[in-house]
């Protein structure tokens, strides 16, 4: 669930060196295709359990990683519309304009996620109301 400060929290995770720090307990090491470095370079940070990662930009969470998974290919196949995937640049080549566009995409994704959570909550309240007001006849 998102908190009110999520738009501005973890801004440092924009950078791969900061995302890399989240992979301390990652099950795969440097020799694996699915190494912490490759995960961070593909936009992911370790999220939840030790075999789960979330893209900082599109917020897609992927679980069940395997040693030979290519992080960028997995990212591309699950979220081809991710601004980071579409940009397809090494971090050193990202311009200020690119940074602004990536952060804009992140903010939009956070707002969409928050909206979806709120709508789910409203839907649950509505269902409870309907059941209380109009109980099913047996």
Automatic annotation (TrEMBL):
Gene3D superfamilies: Inhibitor Of Apoptosis Protein (2mihbC-IAP-1), Chain A. Pfam families: BIR. GO terms for molecular function: metal ion binding. Keywords: Metal-binding, Zinc. It comes from the Eukaryota. Coiled coil: none annotated. This is Uncharacterized protein. It comes from Clastoptera arizonana (Arizona spittle bug). The lineage of its organism: Eukaryota, Metazoa, Ecdysozoa, Arthropoda, Hexapoda.
